[in-house]
């Protein structure tokens, strides 16, 4: 059993003032005031943590970086290892969002160690979850699948729906990427149900995106687009800038799979601008891949397409996105096969 979702990253006086579904503009404003009025370094560390998370979700990368570092410094001054762990968790999550996956793993690893030393179970769980998600994004499924399952069991054991939603979504994404669509859909839909019952709007938005993705792959674009519209409304209400951009990228994916290449191209292009504003290299690279594929379907030459794919493959390798690199390799093979068939017909 589990209760309503809560946000353990809002601590001190902010714990009662803010909730899991608070608008991030509201969180930012409240946290900023708390930083200014903090009575001591521990209170300042906690307020700065909330400020870092609000700015990160709003896509304010520089401000988020300043805030988590300030949180860590204040926590160190206070001698509070648990607060130091939370700050490093925030910094590691920001690094992952910005495509610095090695830095993310290093910061999150330090967060795990400090959280264990402080016996802060929630900080330890969030840091482990961050490590697992970083590995999943990199495509290192063998290394993190067991950790996802462990975190899901911890969430169930302690009645923590946000952990359950996060873990189920991560496991579902791995099943989706390895071709088990039925299992992926089952887990994404269960994640939607848990998030809904726990009143976790953010978790519901991300889970709806996952359901839409699988439905689209299975040939149900209208249902997929309707779910994405519902999730978009949640993202806008909560000021979830990054989640909104990924929602728009998924809409472009759905349009592409349906063969609506002009609409897909335009949506990828507008979403690319969103990701650049948010300074999210991973989202930028994924949108660029979508643009290359859409333009090829609309008649872009094979030579230009292959040149762009070569650049993208290098970018995905640099960032450490194994699954995305595999998508580049697969599409390049598809374009090459098409050219070989064309040459064969001409020779015949």
UniProtKB/TrEMBL annotation:
Coiled-coil residue windows: none
Pfam family, one: TPR_12
Domain of life the protein comes from: Bacteria
Entries under InterPro entries matching the protein: TPR-like_helical_dom_sf
Gene3D superfamilies: Tetratricopeptide repeat domain
Name of the protein in its database record: Tetratricopeptide repeat protein
Organism from which the protein derives: Streptomyces aureus
């Amino acid at each position: 059993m589990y209760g309503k979702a809560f946000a353990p990253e809002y601590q001190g006086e902010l714990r009662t003032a803010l909730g899991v579904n608070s608008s991030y503009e509201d969180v930012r404003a409240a946290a900023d005031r708390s930083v200014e009025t903090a009575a001591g370094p521990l209170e300042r560390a906690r307020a700065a943590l909330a400020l870092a998370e609000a700015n990160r979700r709003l896509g304010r990368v520089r401000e988020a970086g300043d805030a988590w570092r300030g949180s860590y410094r204040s926590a160190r001054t206070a001698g509070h290892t648990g607060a130091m762990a939370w700050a490093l968790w925030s910094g590691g999550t920001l690094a992952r969002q910005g495509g610095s996956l090695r830095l993310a793993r290093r910061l999150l690893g330090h967060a795990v160690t400090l959280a264990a030393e402080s016996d802060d179970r929630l900080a330890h769980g969030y840091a482990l979850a961050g490590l697992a998600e970083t590995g999943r994004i990199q495509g290192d499924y063998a290394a993190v699948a067991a950790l996802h399952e462990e975190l899901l069991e911890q969430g169930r054991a302690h009645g923590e729906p946000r952990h359950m939603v996060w873990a189920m979504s991560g496991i579902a994404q791995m099943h989706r990427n390895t071709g088990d669509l039925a299992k992926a859909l089952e887990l994404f839909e269960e994640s939607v149900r848990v998030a809904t019952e726990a009143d976790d709007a953010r978790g519901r938005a991300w889970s709806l995106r996952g359901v839409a993705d699988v439905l689209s792959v299975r040939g149900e674009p209208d249902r997929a687009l309707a779910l994405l519209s519902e999730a978009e409304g949640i993202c806008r209400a909560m000021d979830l800038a990054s989640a909104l951009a990924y929602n728009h990228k998924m809409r472009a994916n759905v349009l592409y799979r349906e063969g609506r290449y002009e609409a897909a191209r335009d949506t990828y292009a507008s979403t690319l601008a969103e990701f650049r504003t948010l300074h999210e290299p991973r989202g930028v690279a994924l949108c660029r891949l979508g643009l290359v594929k859409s333009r090829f379907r609309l008649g872009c030459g094979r030579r230009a397409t292959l040149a762009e794919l070569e650049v993208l493959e290098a970018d995905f390798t640099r960032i450490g996105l194994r699954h995305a690199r595999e998508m580049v390799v697969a599409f390049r093979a598809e374009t090459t096969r098409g050219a070989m068939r064309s040459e064969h017909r001409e020779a015949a």
